[in-house]
Amino acid sequence: MRQEITLSGSSKVPILVIEGEESLELNDASVIMSALKTCMIDKSKTIYEVITYYPQLKSTNIFGIESTEFTNRHWVMLNEIALELHYPDKAARRDEVRWRHWADDWLLCLLAPNVYRSPMEALAAYDRVVSEGNYGPVEGFVLKYVGAFTMFFFSKLLKIWYRMESDVRQDLYKAADEWMAAIGKRRKFLGGERPNLADISVYGVLGSIEGLQAFDDVMNHTKIRKWYKAMQKVIREHGGQD
Prior knowledge:
Elements: H1 2-8, E1 16-18, E2 24-26, H2 29-41, H3 47-51, E3 56-60, E4 66-70, H4 80-86, H5 90-115, H6 119-132, H7 137-161, H8 168-183, H9 197-207, H10 213-221, H11 224-236
Antiparallel strand pairs: 1-2, 3-4
Protein name: Prostaglandin E synthase 2b
Pfam families: GST_C_2
InterPro entries: Glutathione-S-Trfase_C-like (IPR010987), Glutathione-S-Trfase_C_sf (IPR036282), PGES2_C (IPR034335)
């Protein structure tokens, strides 16, 4: 996988590469989901047409690092007829977009400060990175210790930048509680009986830290476990919305 990512010219995951009329590479998870969902619903459009609905905006931050943002990245782009058919409840569509934003703009930002909260947690996280990667003994050793302590200190900067609590676990717990409150007691998922794209986004964020202490803690100290297990079951059975 590491070699494949290097060959593709990108260091981001996930990556969607399409070979056809022309080569197309996407490495923004939200755009990939929105574009594929649009294609699944409106089969008259090709992926090349759909991608034009998500124009790229490039910018450079104060550190001189260039970043790319995609307009409409959280929206499934449909005509009025398709919208009425697949999103008869306009509030449901707004909620889906809102919580997809939230997953990217807040929940995702909570991960690094929680995963690398302490030197030991940072080492445990990088131990998994090394064990799952194709690294030699020396390369793996250097990556584990240099990477872990770099991310430990970087996570402290993120904590300050986003004005998180002194114990960042509390922010993670509050986020999980906020998500479960949005779903409510009468629904299984935010999308109702079946997951919508917001469910998938939140599941993807939390799933990225499964096996680490932060994941175990949020499962044990909030009510999110039931929803997470239900998502696992649906995904195993390919029961997501078409």
